[in-house]
Design a protein that fits this description.
The chain is of the alpha+beta class. The longest helix is centred in the first third of the chain and has 17 residues. The protein is elongated. The strands form two sheets. The protein has a six-stranded antiparallel beta sheet with strand order 1-11-2-7-8-9, with no helix packed on it. A five-stranded antiparallel beta sheet has the order 6-5-4-3-10, with no helix packed on it.
Length: 247
């Protein structure tokens, strides 16, 4: 190789060869569906903005305990929109603790969990800002439905939201998230139900021994219009409709 440092401008010397290679690229790119070229960076991570097909169809995702390490695009996209997280729990007589559902990690994400007997929601913005909403009372023993409603401010990407916590349809806590992730939570952290693997979203628990100590019947995440619910509960009829829609 005479020009190992590529110091000589061959393109300037052979414009006809450049034109030939450009034409060849166009033919091959068209053949293998490379077009349209997309030079966006962060926006491409968010499937809504990128405009690509999503794994989760519709406005509801139903999850069950033990579902772990779900990648960013396997979980329903809750970014830049209103949404809710509901779960059916059985609380032991000794009191509840542990993660119900969490997505992300130490550098960003959200977690719905029970700490010191109380339902809590934590939103971690890039590891820089942390927002926590805590229920005013402990969860009693027995079967209950808990819910977090995230009312997005709208008007652009990464805006704030009002948070409300419910137990069996009654409000038990409210708060505010000032900033949110617009594109992605993490390149390597995932979503888990019943525990949180990897680095924890919240500082209330560590990377180990954070599993929910009761029973989780199901976790349902709803976005946009599906997240609006007058009685703040997922009723039997609604559960039936979700199940039939998955047939």
């Amino acid at each position: 190789m005479k020009d190992w440092s590529q110091a000589h401008d061959l393109a300037g010397q052979m414009p006809e060869k450049v034109a030939e290679l450009k034409r060849l690229f166009d033919l091959e790119a068209t053949k293998y569906n490379v077009f349209p070229l997309d030079d966006r960076k962060g926006e491409r991570v968010n499937s809504d903005i990128a405009g690509r097909p999503q794994v989760v169809h519709g406005s509801t995702q139903l999850l069950f305990s033990g579902m772990r390490r779900l990648s960013e695009n396997t979980a329903i996209n809750i970014k830049n929109k209103s949404h809710s997280v509901s779960a059916e729990l059985e609380i032991p007589s000794s009191g509840a603790k542990g993660v119900i559902a969490a997505h992300g990690g130490h550098m960003g994400g959200w977690s719905l969990y029970v700490h010191e007997g109380k339902l809590k929601y934590h939103y971690n913005f890039l590891g820089l800002l942390r927002f926590t909403v805590t229920a005013g009372s402990s969860l009693p023993a027995g079967k209950h439905q808990v819910r977090m409603e995230f009312a997005y401010d709208g008007g652009g990407l990464g805006k704030g939201a009002d948070i409300a916590l419910y137990v069996d349809g009654g409000k038990v806590g409210e708060g505010r998230v000032a900033r949110t992730h617009a594109f992605l939570f993490s390149m390597d952290e995932t979503m888990d139900v019943g525990c949180e693997a990897g680095e924890p979203v919240s500082e209330d628990y560590g990377p180990k021994d954070n599993a929910f100590n009761g029973r989780i019947g199901w976790v349902q995440i709803d976005i946009d219009a599906a997240a609006r619910d007058a009685d703040h509960m997922i009723g039997a009829e609604e559960r039936f409709m979700v199940a039939m829609a998955r047939q």
